[in-house]
Amino acid sequence: MTAEPIARVLIDSPLPQLDRLLEYRIPESLDGDARPGVRLVVPLRTGGRQAKGYLVDRVAEASFGGQLAEISEVVSTARVLTPEVYRLARRAADRAAGTASDLLRLAVPPRQVRIEKAWLGALDAAGRTGPALTPAEIAVAEGAPAPALDSDTIAVLRDPTAAAGDRRIALTAPQRLVEAGHGEWLPAGLMTLVGLAARTVAGGRSAIIAVPDYRDLDLVAAAAALVLPGEAIARVDAGRGAGERYRGFLRALEKRPALVIGTRTAVTAPAHRLGLIALWDDGDPLHAEQHAPGVHARDLALLRHDDAACGLILAAHSPSADTQRLVEIGYLRTVTPARSARRRIRPTTRAVGADEPGARARIPSIAWRAASEALATGPVLLQVARPGFDPRIVCADCGEAVRCRVCAGPVGVRRAGAAPSCRWCGAIAPAAPCTRCAGTRRRASTPGSVRTADELGRAFPGARVIVSDADHAHQQVEPGRTIVVATRGAEPIVAGGYRAVLLLDAERMLARDGLRVVDDCLRWWQNAAALAADDAPVLLVGVDGPVAQALATGTADELIAAELADRRRLRFPPAVRSATVTGTAPEVRAALEPVLALDGVDALGPVDTADGQVRAIVRLDYARGVDVAHELRAAVVAAATARAQRRRSTLRVRFDDPTAFDAALDE
DNA sequence: AGCACGCCGACT
DNA sequence: GTCGGCGTGCTC
Q1: Which of A102, A404, A622, A665 has the fewest Cβ atoms surrounding its Cβ within 10 A?
Q2: How far is the CA of A641 from the C1' of B8 (A)?
Q3: Alpha-carbon distance A441 to A592, whole Å?
Q4: Any transmembrane segments, and where (predicted)?
């Protein structure tokens, strides 16, 4: 008999009733293989039902009073669930009223038998498949450029004995490109993260870098490959197939430091002696997880930092309102370039010259002349909006979006012919007088005509035209007389930077509704500006007002602070947390009742949704998070268990959905 | 989810 | 008397 014959097991099941540790006896025959972290098969109830699960840990005595069943099978000896990742899943699930196994489904990739067998075969007694870095490799990694941070800040971030508060940084990255070597150009902020991470690995600790999309990831991978050996890099994204993903995951699992790079799920990867966790552009919606329970990569990074006491850096050209909040409560300290070093984005009028080739494409004269001139020396970027329908109601006099008189939410029509209603609280025809001109006449907004690449290209005779959008994104463009037409977020990189950048659809982007319009526009435009050569003009076409002013004077950070102050006044995220509760009217009513009794909690709605259900948005102070999650979780379990109404439960809870307050309540 | 347990109507 | 209906509850 061994000392710890009881296995505590997490069943791989989305059922909230099963989201706890069940105890099983470990038979003598499996004693050696049944180590913490392995995948298991266990019986669940009688009748030969078998469930998959993870062995979380082993204990000497069972706390369960009843008869224990035995583990059926140890799937493999690979210990894929580390204690750190389990704790992360548990805490994140509790915070979001979800299940740990839902989180682990994202954190632990599906098993690939061939790859796992090869890896297990190569694993030595120390839990590694290869050597640590050589002194020469360490020297290269220690010399990796980290242009946006001074050596003191880097030293503190690397120092495990430094005060935790000093090791949490919000970096507003300088808006310029740097050359990593071998003709690889990337934003200075991304290079900084790679440089920081390379030093961390050189010092014997792992680092995680999570970026929004694959284009950023390719830049990071290329830069990392110049400063670290391939063996020290674990790429954990799903973009190159399940096999490569699992290979990267297993590399991260080894007992030697790695630079773990990937998209949002990288923050949940295993890491040997985690020393740094870095997020790039945390305001990008791609960092918001789509799968249940929908925990944002930023929140996972914060939890991970708290657990591992590692360095934490949230870096972006344009800080998110969430980062701003963390700065204001004193949780993050800022590293910001001097205002004089911020890139100026010049607003220009929308007045179009009549006799220029730019007129047909409705490019204002000043912008067209700047672009034509710049084209002689290299590529020019024209950033455009994605096409899309926008069913908002605006002031007929000045065009400002109309707000709800009840909650200040956007007012729109759900479908053609319907009465205008508030997208957030559901009030019918609630429009308040225009906030800009006090007018009361209304009209539907028009989406604005979409320019074609052809039109834009013809405005610049003799130039090569390259189109880059989400479907056909170009990573890089060669120097030359080239017009690059790109939708926001899909702008290619040019070595040395664009010679001019025109932000053409600024008016349409700013007129979109949604809670984060200002944050998004600042992010899109400052990210594009960061791709320009140092002295190249960046022109914001056809927009004035506070956003344009902030960009012109290099005070975007102050504008985000003002934006956050507004949200605080209105009780909107990220000043408060939110929980979207969807289901049948009685289910939602029952779920809301106990949480609305708590201080610092209120709700918008419920409103009817298109599929006959109702939706309410609970708003809660951060301090109420534990209580509200606990109550809503109890409501989900109750709804799943009590099947009084013969139908399976439809109650859903989603915390901190970034789109909750946007115009997505229809459909 | 499944599957067993449990307390009320029509069958040999 | 008892076979079986599905509402209710549990899964180590």
Answers
A1: A622
A2: 23
A3: 37
A4: none
| A113 CA, C11 C1': Å apart | 29
Q: Which CATH code is given to the segment(s) A113-341?
A: 3.40.50.300
Q: Rounded CA gap, A35 and A56, in Å?
A: 9
CATH code reported for the domain at A577-655: 3.30.70.1710
| Cα gap A435→A412, rounded to integer Å | 16
The whole-number pLDDT of residue A645 equals 45
Which bases of chain B are under 7 A from a protein CB atom?
1-4
Strand B–CB A648 distance below 7 A: yes
Looking at residue A450, what is its pLDDT?
A: 65
CA of A608 to C1' of B8 (A): 39
Give the DSSP H or E segment for A455.
helix A453-458
- Counting Cα atoms < 13 Å in the Cβ hemisphere of A265 gives 22
- C1' (B4) to CA (A395) span, angstroms: 63
Query: Across chain A, how many H-helices and E-strands are there?
Result: 18, 31
Q: What is the pTM of this model?
A: 0.92
Query: Average pLDDT per run of 10 along chain A, which is 667 residues long?
Result: 89 92 96 97 83 96 92 96 98 96 96 98 97 97 96 96 96 95 93 98 98 96 98 96 97 98 98 98 96 96 97 97 98 88 87 76 89 96 76 72 78 67 73 79 62 84 91 89 94 96 91 86 97 96 92 94 96 96 89 95 90 91 95 88 61 92 51
CB A23 within 8 Å of CB A2: no
Q: What is the pLDDT of residue A396?
A: 76
For residue A421, what pLDDT is reported? Answer: 77
Shortest CA–C1' contact from A640: which nucleotide? Answer: B1
A356 three-state secondary structure: coil
Give the pLDDT confidence score for residue A162 in this predicted structure: 96
From the alpha carbon of A47, which nucleotide's C1' atom is closest?
A: B3
CA of A325, C1' of C12: distance in angstroms: 44
Domain boundaries, chain A: 6-82, 113-341, 346-565, 577-655
The CA–CA distances, whole Å, from A355 to A352, A364, A365, A455 equal: 9, 11, 9, 15
Residue A51, nucleotide of least CA–C1' distance: C11
- Which positions 38-97 on chain A have a beta carbon less than 7 angstroms from any atom of strand B? 45-47, 49
Q: Is the dihedral of CA A312, A317, A323, A327 positive or negative?
A: positive
**What is the fold of A6-82?**
GIY-YIG endonuclease (3.40.1440)
Asked if strand B comes closer than 7 Å to A134 Cβ, the answer is no
pLDDT, position A438: 81
8 Å CB contact between A576 and A620? yes
